[in-house]
Design a protein that fits this description.
four-stranded antiparallel β-sheet, sigma factor antagonist activity, RskA_C, single chain, 37% strand, alpha+beta, Anti-sigma factor, globular, 147 residues
């Protein structure tokens, strides 16, 4: 039935594409709300640094929420078939923390998983789909600010 997203009266062949666009838009709004929640946390602390390519990265950490957000500015698109991957650094051991969409010159994402005992975060360029461990040196490694 149309109420479940199936074809309905007055819908055309373009409806699935419109539905996909709406879902992507909803995901972007939800991601922006997550980032805003971390940025607005009463205990949020930030640290910024310049990446190897000249772009700027900022990590914002909320120990109370046990979350961190990463914001990038001036970020070029990665090479074809590659993606930016975020990492937590737990005493020098890198733990995957999600993939970052970089379709524009700026990007923001909440790192996947709990901050826990992590003391820093990094960004690498990995094969599309990401990696279990970094395959290259980080573009940036940002030490978390003190609580």
């Amino acid at each position: 039935p149309a109420a479940w997203g199936g074809p309905g009266v007055g819908q055309h062949g373009g409806a699935p594409a419109a539905g996909d666009a709406a879902r992507r838009s909803e995901r972007r709004v939800a991601a922006a709300e997550e980032v805003t929640r971390v940025l607005a946390a009463p205990d949020a602390r930030s640290r910024s640094g310049r990446m190897a390519d000249g772009s700027t990265g900022t990590v914002v950490v909320s120990r109370g929420l046990n979350q961190a957000a990463f914001l990038a500015s001036g970020l070029p698109e990665p090479p074809a078939g590659r993606i930016y991957q975020l990492w937590f650094s737990d005493g020098g051991t890198m733990r995957p923390a999600g993939l970052m969409d970089s379709s524009g010159r700026s990007a923001a994402a909440v790192l996947s998983g709990a901050v826990g005992k992590a003391s820093a975060m990094g960004v690498t360029i990995e094969p599309a789909g990401g990696s279990k461990a970094p395959t290259s040196d980080p573009l940036v490694l940002l030490t978390f600010p003190p609580a």
